[in-house]
Amino acid sequence: MRTLCASTLIGEFFVIGFAGLVAMKDDSLSMGTVWTVCGIAMVLSVLLCGMITRRGGVQLGWALQIALIASGFVVPIMFFLGAVFAGLWWASIHFGRKIDEAKAKWAAQPQ
């Protein structure tokens, strides 16, 4: 599960950075505000890569997905991209757990 979730989070890191570049073109937002919010989200996405297997890591990942979708109010394409990454996040968790279970069964078999 960790590898799939980390891959999704690293993809989000780049999408958040590109969304920040798009948001900078909005005259009503200051560059400092845009990069503070984007920077925090980018750092959180990288830190979550190491926290996935810890308690609350998956829930923090879901919070990031919600924030990514909500960023669509500033950069409208993020409604779509946030939904895509939320789907990838769900798939990473769902199939990652299945892979972990299969690995555990295979490791438990006598050699």
Would you write up a description of this structure?
With 111 residues, the chain is an all-alpha fold. Helix content is 80%, strand content 0%. The protein is built from four helices and no strands. Helix 1 runs antiparallel to helix 2 and helix 3 packs antiparallel against helix 4. It is elongated. The two termini are 25 Å apart. The mean pLDDT is 94.
Radius of gyration, in Å, reads: 16 Å
In sequence order, what are the helices and strands, one letter per element? Answer: HHHH
Summarize model confidence as the mean pLDDT: 94
What class do helices, strands and sheet pairing give? mainly alpha
Termini separation:
25 Å
Indicate the multimeric state: single chain
Q: Poorly predicted ranges (pLDDT <50, ≥5 residues)? A: none
DSSP helix fraction:
over 70%
Shape: elongated
- Tell me the total number of β-strands: 0
Give the count of helical stretches: 4
Strand content: under 5%
Q: Biggest sheet: strands, sense, closure?
A: none
